[in-house]
Write a structure and sequence with these properties.
10 strands, alpha+beta, three-stranded antiparallel beta sheet
């Protein structure tokens, strides 16, 4: 009995402490549940608003893409595609920033980081961006098109394709050359097929032959060539007179694409006619 009477106060004390701890734990759980519910009521609407903003952004991207394509339907395909993508990316960035702001995230730091990254990329890609800007200008201003024969940037050839960063040329000996757009846009550019027709300037040394009869003969040779145009008609002028000879300038016209052929064949026919007269 003495042992039981001694143990009872200790048991009562332990039970009292255990009961107090249970009450404290229940209070903590209850407070946690209350805070969790309050936090849920704060966060859930923000999350729903952010999701709604992202969904609206998605629809806005589709709408802006269709609207931009329709508005730029007559614009060159490469430039149109770039402008559509630029508009979609701009709307996406605005939507993401708005969604983050709705979630309570400070977007000022995000914008600052994006700006710093853009500046770093811009400095690293300075030359690339200049080629890109030149490509946009070339596509917009159209100083040449695919199929034109051009000279510029220390190269010469027929335009095979026009890209945002570079232009592809094919030379007369069938070599493909990739030219950065900046070199074509900043330098002097010569388009030899843009006008459709071209004049062939030939310098012919007639020696001591009479001028007028020789002019008439040269014009007859030029007019007889099937690729020489009747309008404008060929002309023949005195280019230079020296004590030993006379230089005539024979100028037939032809289609731009036939320039090299006409130049070569007319000279060949003139040489054959002059040799025949000698014999």
């Amino acid at each position: 009995m003495t042992a039981i009477s001694t143990f009872m106060p200790i048991a009562q004390t332990l039970y009292s402490q255990l009961d107090t701890e249970r009450v404290q734990a229940f209070q903590v759980a209850q407070e946690f549940s209350k805070k969790f519910v309050e936090l849920g009521f704060q966060i859930v609407p923000q999350v729903l608003w952010a999701i709604g903003i992202l969904l609206i952004t998605r629809f806005a991207i589709d709408f802006a893409g269709r609207l931009t394509r329709r508005a730029l339907s007559r614009t060159e395909a490469t430039l149109r595609k770039f402008l559509v993508q630029a508009a979609e990316i701009a709307i996406l960035v605005v939507g993401v920033v708005a969604a983050l702001s709705k979630l309570g995230i400070q977007t000022t730091s995000v914008v600052a980081v994006v700006g710093a990254a853009s500046l770093a990329i811009g400095l690293a890609w300075q030359n690339t961006l200049s080629h890109f800007a030149a490509g946009v200008m070339l596509i917009s201003l159209r100083p040449f098109e695919v199929g034109d024969a051009i000279e510029g940037g220390d190269v010469k050839g027929v335009v095979d394709s026009i890209g945002i960063f570079s232009t592809t040329l094919v030379t007369d000996d069938h070599v493909k050359i990739i030219v950065p757009n900046n070199k074509l846009f900043d330098g002097t550019l010569k388009n030899t097929t843009a006008m459709g027709t071209r004049r062939v300037d030939l310098k012919i040394d007639i020696g001591d032959r009479p001028i007028r009869p020789t002019m008439a003969e040269l014009l007859e040779i030029a007019n007889s060539h099937p690729l020489v145009l009747e309008n404008p008609s060929p002309t023949c002028l005195v280019a230079e007179i020296t004590p030993d000879s006379t230089i005539l300038s024979l100028r037939p016209w032809c289609a731009s694409v036939a320039y090299e052929q006409v130049r070569s064949q007319v000279q060949e026919h003139v040489k054959e006619a002059m040799n025949a007269q000698k014999n």
